[in-house]
Amino acid sequence: xxxxxxxxxxxxxxxxxxxxxxxxxxxxxxxxxxxxxxxxxxxxxxxxxxxxxxxxxxxxxxxxxxxxxxxxxxxxxxxxxxxxxxxxxxxxxxxxxxxxxxxxxxxxxxx
Length: 111
Fold this sequence. Notes:
With about 110 residues, the protein is an alpha+beta fold. The chain has helices at about 5-15, 55-70, 95-110; strands at about 20, 25-30, 40-45, 80-85. It has a 4-stranded mixed β-sheet with strand order 1-2-4-3, with helices on both faces. The longest helix is centred in the middle third of the chain and has 18 residues, at about 55-70. The N and C termini lie far apart (about 25 Å).
């Protein structure tokens, strides 16, 4: 799974990306930059300090990575940021998948 590492790409994604939210996850999406291979989608997993200590933040990112794989990510031609929200680390996998699909559909429908 390709991840977004360059701070310029991360800043661009948060500044210009389309947003979709659900109870457990915030999704930001933006087409892959022209210089990159469009067949390769990239993903960024974010768990801020508001979630709690390092153990909860790391667990939240693991849960996001697993949900991303189950839902079909990374998606070709698009950069996606998945931001954990409170409650994600302890949520059932089915609920996480449902919330991720809901947030992704909101990103796709936003113009």
